[in-house]
Design brief:
The protein is an all-alpha fold. It is built from six helices and no strands. Helix 1 packs antiparallel against helix 2 and helix 2 runs antiparallel to helix 3. The termini are far apart.
Amino acid sequence: MDIQHIIFWTLCVLTLGCAVGVIMSRNPINSVLFLILTFFTISAHYVMMNAQFLAIVNIIVYAGAIMVLFLFVIMLMNLNGDTEPQKNTLVQFAAVISGGALLLILIAAFKSAVSGIDGKQIEYSQSTDIGLIKNLGHVLFTDYVFPFEVASVLFLSAMVGAVVLGKKDSEMVVIEE
């Protein structure tokens, strides 16, 4: 077993451990911190798959922006023991059913991945430059330049619309004829 397999399996154990920590933690702040660690270990998996762009976006967007938002919401809710909802057996039953269905899907996916397609082992390419940011930028600015520019204009108009909607009526300049 080489070092890459050892790192992979260590990351798998860490990812699953942190994910279990998210759902088993009683404290919401600890749960969010476990989720941040889960995002970082998933980003490490992306780096191992040579998808650096996905790893960076995962850290910036999810571990950064979304988790800060979650922390603010949790802290603003001011959760304590008096406001916790009571346990509902119907919800627990639905959780067990959905968890069992997810387990069956994972077992079927694992079984098909091990056996391969039609009994043949799946061959993976050993290309090392698929997920590089340089290649992604080259494809975006050559093959997909028009959709990329349309998306940038849409984002710009959405930002201008958000600023206009966010302004108060007293701050708006009214042009009278």
